[in-house]
Design goal:
The protein is an alpha+beta fold and about 150 residues long. The chain has a single domain, classed as 2-Layer Sandwich (Alpha-Beta Plaits). It has five helices and five strands; from the N terminus they run αβααββαβαβ. Strands 2-3-1-4-5 form a five-stranded mixed β-sheet. Strand 4, helix 5 and strand 5 form a beta-alpha-beta unit. The longest helix has 18 residues. The two termini are about 20 Å apart.
Length: about 150
Amino acid sequence: MLAGELRRSQRYSLALSLLLLDVDNFKSINDKYGHIAGDNVLKRLATTFESAIRTSDFIARWGGEEFLSMLSDTPLEGGRIFAERVLSEVHQAFPDGSVTLSAGVARCTDGMDTPTRLLAAADEAMYEAKAAGGDCVRVANETLRAKGP
């Protein structure tokens, strides 16, 4: 889907933002409350995400506790705003602070014009959010364009 959405955004000169969202300290949730509770957290997050996105967007579980979202016709700033809104929605869904997210946002550019490069940029931004203590959003730095795989 990502490859197709990239081609569409390039063909029609549309903005495309990609988000990677990772549950902070998810292992500790599983360790403390068990895997069934961890699965319930993931289901509750999925419901929260679905209520936050537009019908034209896409969000899916990407890996263990990671989610990926493609935001069609959305520039980088719009991707950042959306990610911050998702974090706010998660704060409302888990008001005790037991679940937080780290988010990385990247956009399709000349240097990030393949799924691999775009994912790498969003992933690096997400890890920057984790390194900053989690529960925050980081946007891919434009210099990542020169570093792409």
